[in-house]
Amino acid sequence: LAHCGKLELEDVEVKIQKRNKMPTKGLRKFLKTLSKEDLIKYIVELDKKYKLVQEHYEVYLAFDISGFVEKQKKIIVNEFFPSKGLPKVRLSVARKAISDAKKMGFPPEALADLMLFYVENGVQFTNEFGDIDEPFYTSMENMYRDALKYIRSERLRDKFENRAYLIPEKAEGTGWGFHETLYDFYYEYFY
After folding, report:
1. Residues 68, 69, 74, CA angle at the centre, nearest 5°?
2. Which residues pair with 4 in a beta bridge?
3. Distance of CA 161 to the CA centre of its chain
4. In this structure, how many other beta carbons lie within 10 angstroms of the beta carbon of residue 76?
5. What b/e string do you get for 6-29 counting C-beta neighbours within 10 Å, with b at 16 or more?
6. How far apart are the C-alpha atoms of 137 and 14, rounded to whole Å?
7. I want to staple 59 with a disulfide (CB 3.0 to 4.6 A). Which of 17, 50, 104, 141 is the partner?
8. What would the 3-class secondary structure string for 109-158 be?
């Protein structure tokens, strides 16, 4: 696409890079200058150029996103229980699978599922491998709290309440105060 309306694509990309993020108002103004045909070409070019845009539209246009959810779950589980070798337990990699899912536009139910899945794997890991360090437990606690807050805000309690309750149950006897903190969050957000 050599030309989109009055602005060159390269000019828009340079402006975005300089500002680090184009304000939504500016983006809307730019998009309104495009004809329907140019807008379609522009979106297709973005789709070809940026993997995150491709993934967003794959999820957005999919009738069944279960394959996408499973891909993110595989990333998470691989950090705790890899099929080969020792666990790396790179919590940042596992959390990135969730933040990528948010960026791709996963529906609320799928995001809540991934958030709880992260904590479930963390609890299973500490049960199998013993006490871990404080940053590990803090990460699990924060994700659990965020998941419960999200579940409540999205009105998904009925779907996830039993699963959310089992997490502190299974964490009993691990980490100093870990399961107590999880219970505190459970009762704070669900009762």
Report:
1. 100
2. 7
3. 20
4. 22
5. eeebeebeeeeeeeeebeeeeeee
6. 42
7. 104
8. HHHHHHHHHHHHHHHHHHHHHCCCCHHHHHHHHHHHHHHHHHHHHCCCHH
Helix (H, G, I), strand (E, B) or coil at 163: helix
Buried b (16+ CB within 10 A) or exposed e, 94-126: bbebbebbeebbbeeebbbbbbbbbbbbbbebb
Residue 63 carries which DSSP code? Answer: S
What is residue 1's predicted lDDT score, i.e. its pLDDT?
45
The 10s digit of each residue's pLDDT in 89-105 is 999 999 999 999 998 88
Q: Determine the Cα–Cα distance for residues 9 and 13; give it in Å rounded to an integer.
A: 6
Specify the pLDDT at position 10. Answer: 53
DSSP letter, residue 7: B
What are the tens digits of pLDDT across the range 8-58?
Answer: 555 555 444 454 566 788 888 888 888 888 888 888 888 888 877 877 777
- For residue 81, give the DSSP letter: S
Q: Enter the tokens of residue 43.
A: 């979106």
Asked if 3 and 33 count as a contact pair (C-beta separation under 8 A), the reply is no
Tell me how far apart the alpha carbons of residues 146 and 185 are, in angstroms, rounded to a whole number: 9
> 185 and 145 in contact (C-beta within 8 Å)?
yes
Q: Is residue 72 within 8 Å of 98, Cβ to Cβ?
A: yes
Of 117, 110, 96, the residue nearest 64 (C-alpha): 110
User: Which pTM does this prediction carry?
Assistant: 0.76
